[in-house]
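[job 0412] stage=complex_fold ligand=adenosine-5'-triphosphate status=START
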Amino acid sequence: MIVIKAQDLTFTYSGSKKPAIENLNLEVKEGEFIVITGPSGCGKTTFARCLNALIPSFYRGEMKGFILVLGMDISKSTTSQLSKYVGFVFQNPENQLFSLSVERDVAFGPENLGLPREEVRRRVEWAMKVTGITHLRHAAPYELSGGQQQRVAIASILAMKPKIIVLDEPTSFLDPLSAHQIIETVSNLRSEMEITIILIEHRLDLASRYADRVIIMDRGRIILEGPPSKVYGEDAEAIGVGIPKISLLFNLLKREGYDLGCTPVTLEEATQAIRRRIMDDRS
Amino acid sequence: MSLKLFEGFRFTGKRTPIHRMDPRPKLLIASSIFLLSILFTNIIVLLILLIAQLPLIYLAKSLRRWSNSLRGGAVLATLIFIMNFLTGSTLVFSLSMTLRFLVLISAFSLFFLTTSPDDLGLVLERLHLPYTLSFTFTTAVRLVPTVALEAQTIVDAQRSRGLELDRGNIIERLRRHIPILIPLIVSAIRRSTELAEALESRAFGSCENRESLITLSMKWTDYFVAIATIIILLVGIFVRLWIPLPSLDESIRLPSIWV
Ligand SMILES: Nc1ncnc2c1ncn2[C@@H]1O[C@H](COP(=O)(O)OP(=O)(O)OP(=O)(O)O)[C@@H](O)[C@H]1O
Ligand SMILES: [Mg+2]
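[job 0412] stage=complex_fold status=DONE, emitting structure tokens
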């Protein structure tokens, strides 16, 4: 089933001349894990805002083409209506938490949906368990580390049981270890529930391992798209995308004349490729 | 100084009997102290009202923060004293007015130090205020220390670039504050946009009859405290109306010293 379908999507913020995204075409299937990346200002956030109708209901501007999210036309929906289906995790954890205890914050979304108290309680417990923050239940968000805060933000979104979760650079305020843990948490979601994940991320070393598809954007357009091992070639390097070190190494080797026949994304894949090559050489 | 004052009103999630108390009896205590301190000008009563809060503050393990809020109010308190004394009030009366101000600060500091803005929101909801209104109020309360901290960061940053805030006459000083104000306003606007976006994404305001996960419930200790407070308040009103208190007023006034 197609959950997101964008066709010739173009959006220009009111007041600026150049479109922030231009002629975007994309289809996302249910349950996919998609990583979107690209240099700063290329329109990733703008595209993400289209997914839960922050564009065009919150940010004014001119929209051309269309985008359907779960069959709904976003130009005819509001963010509130969509919030039941599309969860959005923002970059800055500080400005997306509203309460003084973790538990209440996770409950905030389901409460707003008008769910009965027992259902809210069930969802809060579940979401805290999935994100591993049950022990922080009574803590105040401002006392937590950035990584823990971002986990609370993810739990708050999960408690609304969305079909799609969009995370806009959720790790950019975090140290490498916390970033790693957040991405692990996100990738584990798929085993807990039926969910489509759209992750906007610069740290491709971490995210690529779990991604079904990587989308590389530049200047408002989609430049490259496909499984990680297909897109991390030399073109991606040229755009200035921080592709995984191991992919980079294999690209370098290829340029030097050592074509190992693939672009690995993880160390395991790389090891296998090298081992294969050594076996071939021996025989 | 201003930051210290905010510290003295900022909720900290400690686990003490006072923190755990239902917010309603706490609000009752604070308002009763408020009322009594307005009713009486007698310096002894005002002193008792101040001292009576000490055990509560001690129980709440908040002595340091509480004293911060009093120290934060010290400048204003001194001003109140000087104004009263200079305009011909007696020494004792001027002291009483100063004390009254400190009693008020202390009472509300005690309330805000030990009551989570979330609980305050629940009280406002109980009073049938629209949810958006109570939410706005609690968010404002919650953001005060954050914004204060941010202001401090901006002041430090601009100082390290050579901005001198305390030089020149009043106009000059105000002008020197502009480089503080502009970044502060810009960041406040950015913050409010981000908050609004996040609120929208969490279905804020999409449903009329929302049910809060946490509800307020009074334990017997809360009832006990509430009833005790009401009795003390009634006794206070009774004393004020029917029993004349001994006055300490020695009629020391500024002109009498001068003459
Ligand atoms: N609210 C806005 N009003 C006007 N222009 C905007 C607004 N938000 C973004 N833009 C512009 O749209 C373009 C795309 O910005 P966007 O935030 O989508 O990029 P991004 O890929 O998310 O970048 P980053 O990696 O820095 O987050 C930029 O040129 C930016 O200046
Ligand atoms: Mg962005």
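The interface with chain B takes residues 52, 54, 58, 78-81, 83-84, 87-88, 90, 92, 94-96, 98-101, 103-104, 107-109, 111-117, 120-121, 124, 138-140, 142-143, 156-157, 160 of chain A (CB under 8 Å).
[job 0412] exit 0
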